[in-house]
């Protein structure tokens, strides 16, 4: 079984490529926008201290942003999952390209992340993808991040966040926020991947998605294979974008409930259930 079939995305993707009116915010690194598999993608960049176009293609930030962008809006038929190429991508770069090449995961401060979330919500995003690690946590930064997530909830903008890859049990200001959908990684059989963070809030309100040996775009013509929860989160984000494209009149609460509860049992585990995008589609169809 392929990864898209594992999480019920194949039948949903066969219905369409998404609608331009559905905007996915990518809070990540810069993107190699001249990549041929992104040439037809609708990408709108928000001004920020970090440029949205790659200036150092070998940088971790550029490779990470391009990889996740490819998962969401690359051309169908490319090496990437290309879940919702018809949707609009709002690019809000947050990871600078001057990070060391041996750093496996770009990171941002809570204050930087809070600002980016607030700006993408204000720019009209329907769903925000956070494949980011936090550094320099502080009580002040935590409050700003809490307020930014509250603002997203007030504006009915869904937030999908990578749960993290430290192999810990617990929660963060992001994963325990009731409006956030935290995402853990699983293998090709749907089993929890080693290293994914788990916790009661993650198990209660989150989802699991493929996060091992995921292939998407690189900054050159060769595909890249990557893993972790930052690769798992776009599966959920893309599913939400496609569902909103199919049900443009649905509320954020309806979409969130359908995605997180469709086909799942009572939430009693630290491990969240596997995404089932097709079951969510059927739930929304019956409403």
Structural commentary:
- With 287 residues, this protein is an alpha/beta fold.
- The chain has one domain: Rossmann fold (3-Layer(aba) Sandwich), CATH 3.40.50.
- 33% of the residues lie in helices and 16% in strands.
- It is built from nine helices and eleven strands.
- It has helices spanning 3-6, 9-13, 60-73, 110-122, 139-154, 200-205, 229-246, 252-261, 277-286, and strands at residues 23-28, 42-45, 88-93, 107-108, 127-130, 133-134, 158-162, 180-186, 207-210, 214-216, 224-226.
- The strands form three sheets. It has a seven-stranded parallel β-sheet with strand order 2-3-1-5-7-8-9, with helices on both faces. A two-stranded parallel ribbon has the order 4-6.
- β2, α3 and β3 form a beta-alpha-beta unit.
- The radius of gyration is 17 Å and the shape is globular.
- The two termini are 30 Å apart.
What best-fitting shape do the alpha-carbon axes yield?
A: globular
Number of domains: 1
Along the chain, the helix and strand elements come as HHEEHEEHEEHEEHEEEHHH
Going by helix content, strand content and strand pairing, the class is alpha/beta
Q: Can you tell me the CATH architecture?
A: 3-Layer(aba) Sandwich
Quick recap of the structure?
Helices cover 33% and strands 16% of the residues. It is an alpha/beta fold and 287 residues long.
List descriptors.
Rossmann fold; globular; two-stranded parallel ribbon; seven-stranded parallel beta sheet; alpha/beta; single chain; 287 residues
